[in-house]
């Protein structure tokens, strides 16, 4: 939104962007900045809420293997047992989070363009209050760029930042939202007055021939020496909207599926993959996970443990157990999801009963044979274990699992993030909940 300090004389400012007359666009001003800020205010509120839900879906307070953000302290005060109903819950919340985040990129860039003169205010610091405002602005702009850039790189599966995506994105979100809330509280009254003076409908009816610079005011956004306009504010907003709609159209198909899946050009895991019963998306292949042929060959065994009891099953013995079939999607943190797939396997609750009567709720720790990558182990809550649709699946769409989809057995849990649907399972340890 807008600043409140009056620009000082520029005679002592060095030539270049520190002088207000350097910025010549006739479109910059409190009105355009306020409109873009209002869009971001709504969009970022939804992003933050769905981001919190995404973190809660990992059940990070259940076990260390699920928690990729150590020492989160009070930042995890809102956590709750992630439900299994409706089964498409994570597909919806994370799909909205990623798709909206990508769609807002043009709006964010336009907002930064509209306020860029404020970043070069001269002198850089005029008072203690101004210094605090500059620091908050640095956290706001830096935090926004960090969150959007790391998010986009993660969606593209081309993450290049040091450290794990999970803690960096999580802690970065809290820093950014603190600066964002402070900025919103300070600037909303100014933006509200600006939009009341000149409504959106009125400006959208103004053609290029009647476009004029806004009156100079204390915000310092209006150029003292504007160039003639080459685009109306209506055109500028239309350009931003066109960019956002283009990104929406090339991203949303990864979550919605159907015919739109082929339009998910911006989502490398969102498009159709192969054909046949196993012809749907995978995040990590068996090769990338370090799964050797000997790990999932004839010598593979499934070990079930609870307290001092242990049962070891061969694949043939696992296939002889009573089986259920369910239709569930896989949804991942990158925003992509599959359509509903038909999984067949043994309910986790039945496996728990093999190592003791389930007279009390039990959690489960699932281990994979994979030797590299995150989430080689994952913990499931008792509500996930007892849900009859939670399976240790051996077949999908009527066929044996392929190695990339977790042969010989993988977990499938309704509404759980994809990484908790552990592939190449070799051990499940059940423990009573406290």
TrEMBL record:
Keyword Transmembrane found: yes
Keyword Electron transport annotated = no
Positions of the Oxidoreductase molybdopterin-binding domain: 299-434
Q: Which residues cross the membrane?
A: 31-58, 95-116, 137-156, 168-186
For bias kind Basic and acidic residues, which ranges apply? 203-215
Segments of this protein annotated with the region Disordered = 203-229
Give a GO molecular function annotation for the protein.
oxidoreductase activity
User: Which UniProt keywords are listed?
Assistant: Membrane, Transmembrane, Transmembrane helix
State the name under which the record lists this protein.
Answer: Oxidoreductase molybdopterin-binding domain-containing protein
Provide the species name.
Answer: Halostreptopolyspora alba
